[in-house]
Amino acid sequence: MSTRRKPVPRLLDPFRILGARERRAHLAAYERHLDQRDGTLDLAAMRLARRESYLEDLANKPVRWRGDLGAARELRTTWLVAAAKANEGESYGVELELRRFAQRHPDGRGADVAYLHLLLQEHYHTRLLRELRRSCGVEAEMERPGASQRAVIQLMMWVPERLRWILVLCGEVVGCAVFEILREKCSLFSSQPEVEERMAALLTEIHHDEVLHVAYLRARLRPWAIRLARWIAPWVAAGVMREVPQVYTLGYSRREFLARLRRGLEIPAELDWVDPVLQPV
Q1: How high is the pLDDT of residue 196?
Q2: Domain limits for position 100
């Protein structure tokens, strides 16, 4: 009896140094993909047409957990807390950055449209995670990060741009790995398959964007910056894990989490331009 083998995923090395020609090709492909994925950008309202349609469809077809969280309540609650905390700092930083963007480019002239798409996608992630919590019967709003985390985020906004992009890349890499783990652990909700399916779909949307952001930032950075990002990534990971210690409860030690980063990030099938090298797990 033959068994179907699971396809070997393509893995993105976030810190692979790209040549100048490859960087240009990746940035061009990124912008083309944005047109297909996000639809029309409404600069005045800071909205993306296809993202709004997706959220409207979710609202029209609600999925909700029935009853309490059951025997696995503690682990399921831990999972929900991790999902919320994984986005707290990023959500706060994105709101600050969007306000600064609007102040600097009130009429859109001179704006980096690709970067604006990245910011707006992160804003939509907050709304997707709100829908994810609703799927489990939790209506709580996203909390603000703690004072120390807010201070670090505000400080990052004034770091020279060529250094700030390095920190942003490391943060996106770590965030992407956290969302991969959360998606894998959706099986905690398998007793209600429609809820598990909805949650996995929402996390797949977010993960797709996060990998896209990593590819975009990697293509923007020069070799020296990529080398520095590879060096400081473990420290960034340690900082994130202090804010989201629930990942440890879900079964990942610090060593295992760092090993996951070294292994690479799974590339969604639609992003065939991201990395030409096929790497096995």
Answers
A1: 95
A2: 11-262
Indicate whether 187 belongs to any domain: yes
Residue 271 belongs to a domain: no
pLDDT value for 6: 61
Q: Is residue 6 part of a domain?
A: no
Number of structural domains in the chain? 1
Listed ranges 63-72, 156-165, 167-176; the one with the highest mean pLDDT:
167-176
Residue 273 lies in a domain: no
Quote the pTM value: 0.89
Percent of the chain with pLDDT over 90: 44
pLDDT of residue 88: 80
DSSP string, the chain: ---PPPPPPPEE-TTPPPPHHHHHHHHHHHHHHHHHHH--EETTTTEEHHHHHHHHHHHHS-----SS--TTHHHHHHHHHHHHHHHHHHHHHHHHHHHHHHHH-TT-TT--HHHHHHHHHHHHHHHHHHHHHHHTT--PPPPPPPHHHHHHHHHHTTS-HHHHHHHHHHHHHHHHHHHHHHHHGGGGGTTSHHHHHHHHHHHHHHHHHHHHHHHHHHHHS-HHHHHHHHHHHHHHHHHHHHH-THHHHTT--HHHHHHHHHH-EEPPTT-TTS-S-----
